[in-house]
Write a structure and sequence with these properties.
The complex is a heterodimer of chains A (130) and B (383). Helix content of chain A is 9%, strand content 42%. Chain A has 130 residues and is mainly beta. Chain A folds into two domains: 47 residues; 83 residues, Beta Barrel (OB fold (Dihydrolipoamide Acetyltransferase, E2P)), CATH 2.40.50. In chain A, the strands form two sheets. In chain A, strands 6-5-4-7-8 form a five-stranded antiparallel beta sheet. Chain A has a three-stranded antiparallel beta sheet with strand order 2-1-3. The model of chain A has no long low-confidence stretch (mean pLDDT 95). Chain B folds into two domains: 124 residues, Thiolase/Chalcone synthase (Peroxisomal Thiolase, Chain A, domain 1, 3-Layer(aba) Sandwich), CATH 3.40.47.10; 223 residues, Thiolase/Chalcone synthase (Peroxisomal Thiolase, Chain A, domain 1). In chain B, 34% of the residues lie in helices and 18% in strands. Chain B is built from 14 helices and eleven strands. A nine-stranded mixed beta sheet of chain B has the order 3-2-4-7-1-8-11-10-9, with helices on both faces. In chain B, strands 5-6 form a two-stranded antiparallel sheet. Chain B is globular. Classes of the chains: A mainly beta (130), B alpha/beta (383). The interface between A and B is large, with 36 and 35 residues.
Chain lengths: 130, 383
């Protein structure tokens, strides 16, 4: 997993997606072809770091390696540019959240590969205080 | 065009096969189906399986199963399409026969889930979602589906108790089915108050974890050794965006709808010709979205139709006639083949207490991911 993690680091660290050079549509995760106009002319594009919660779930359905984070709040988030993505929502309990809440991306520890293993980092989202 | 006939079928009980391996289950179902068909050596073996490499550290399933069945020399391969692997194995077998490349194909669907720790099983079932976009972050397929369920319930004003209707139908039909994992009737309240898994989805909204294998022998008219009683009238498939929220319409299972249209056109039938359906009821909400995409219900009205009895065993369109994914169980890559075996029983009048009266035409719907892969089969009684 380490090499794949290194390769994808910009996606995990900066939410680096794609922008179509023809129709300006933006995408995350990055695409091979524009999902709107089918163009192959694409540029890297960092996503905006703020958005709002469209839906969220308190999940106890946990993949190995994430046991210590159970239960996790997973949100469907619409970023300011309209791109939708799923991500963990941290630093909040489910009863502190509501659909429509504004959230921002933060850089966090995602998982730890055993006591002496690698630590994987990436984006999570937190609620923006009003 | 060549006909694709069903010459034999077999299945194992779905559940906790602590004492049987992936290979044990595949060989048990496969050899019983060959015996049922009266065929010693099929021209081809196609195995439907999603994650044997992950669950059992075993790939090359075609060769190891052929070898174990003493069918060395028979070409064999595995077909993988997430939760639709079983149906896609049948789809490939159907194509091989229609092309004239083979006169008989043994299709085996198999999945071994109980050799894994529970959280590994969650991961295995989520392998059909994106490795870097969701799995890396620990996001399971159930969590993704929960988000869609929230939006679906909100959009169509569906209550918690309304959502609970599909598991109740599934469990009711599983009670008399000897091969079903959960032969216990449940109530709306049981579902609505079961343990939260990923809200709004609760334990009884979700198809269970279980092992199993099912097998069918498909033949051309030249390949059969006795007069077959049922045929595959159509086998069609389609795909859609991996992530449901990247679709133009999140509440339309487009892959399913496209596969259905292709299957009906190929068979020369309309949806009104369908007597019963095995649907991909992996989650309560997915069951509802499936009956809507399949044209049995209008948009947003799946749960209400279910509540009114439309999908009961004696209703207008019986679904999940042996319990479906929820009641019979969902050994993932095997599920599509279970559906074929169950429909075969319906069409040949051997469904026992689960028999749908005068069943002539059945529709089977199997899905990978959250409708990122979908397959639809139409089976008909012959003669």
């Amino acid at each position: 997993m380490s090499i794949a993690y290194w390769r994808e680091r910009n996606r995990y660290y900066r939410i680096l997606g794609s922008k179509c050079k023809e129709c300006s549509a933006e995408f995350f995760p990055p695409v091979y072809k524009c999902r709107k106009c089918n163009s192959e002319k694409l540029a890297e594009q960092e996503m905006p770091k703020e958005g709002k919660v469209m839906a969220y779930t308190l999940s106890r359905d946990i993949i190995t390696g994430f046991e210590d984070q159970e239960p996790m709040i997973i949100g469907l988030i619409e970023l300011q540019n309209g791109v939708k993505m799923v991500a963990q929502i941290a630093d909040a309990s489910a009863d502190q959240l509501a659909v429509g809440d504004k959230v921002k991306a933060v850089f966090r520890r995602v998982s730890v590969n055993g006591e002496a293993g690698q630590i994987f980092y990436g984006y999570k989202f937190v609620k923006i205080d009003k | 065009m060549k006909k694709v006939l069903i010459a034999g079928a077999s299945l194992t009980k779905v559940g906790d096969h602590w004492n049987k391996s992936l290979l044990d289950l595949a060989v048990e179902a496969g050899s019983a189906a060959l015996k049922d068909a009266g065929i010693a050596i099929p021209d081809q073996i196609v195995v439907g399986n999603m994650f044997s490499g992950f669950s059992s550290l075993q790939e090359n399933l075609g060769a190891i199963i052929a070898d174990s069945l003493m069918l060395q020399g028979t070409p064999a391969l595995k077909v993988e399409s997430s939760g639709a692997s079983g149906a896609m194995a049948c789809n490939v077998a159907d194509s091989i026969i229609r092309s004239g490349q083979a006169n008989s194909v043994l299709v085996i669907g198999v999945e071994k889930m109980r050799d894994m720790e529970p959280n590994d099983a969650v991961h295995a079932a989520s392998l059909g979602e994106s490795a870097s976009f969701t799995q890396f972050f620990g996001i399971s397929q159930t969590a993704m589906c929960a988000l869609l369920t929230h939006l679906y319930m909100q959009e169509f004003e569906i209550s918690r108790d309304e959502l609970s209707v599909f598991p109740v139908i599934a469990h009711k039909n599983a009670v008399p089915a000897e091969h079903a994992q959960f032969r216990k009737a449940i109530t709306i309240t049981d579902v609505s108050r079961s343990m939260p898994v990923s809200d709004p989805l609760r334990l009884l909204d979700c198809a269970p974890v279980g092992d199993g294998a099912a097998a069918v022998v498909l033949c051309s008219e030249n390949g059969q050794t006795k007069n077959a009683e049922a045929e595959i009238s159509a086998s069609a498939a389609s795909t859609d965006s991996l992530n449901f929220f990247q679709r133009d319409d999140m509440f339309d299972f487009t892959a399913t709808r496209r596969a259905l249209a292709k299957a009906l056109a190929f068979a020369g039938l309309s949806i009104k010709d369908i007597d019963f359906a095995e649907i991909n009821d992996s989650y309560s909400s997915v069951a509802a979205l499936s009956v809507e995409a399949l044209g049995f219900s209008k948009r947003g009205e799946g749960v209400r139709d279910a509540k009114e009895g439309k999908f009961d065993l004696n209703g207008k369109i019986p679904i999940s006639t042996f319990g479906g994914l929820k009641g019979r169980g969902n050994p993932i890559g095997a599920t599509g083949v279970y559906q074929i075996v169950e429909a075969y029983r319906q069409l040949t009048g051997t469904a026992g207490a689960n028999q749908v009266k005068n069943a002539k035409t059945g529709l089977l719907h199997n899905m990978g991911g959250i409708d990122s892969s979908a397959a639809v089969h139409i089976l008909r009684r012959v003669g």
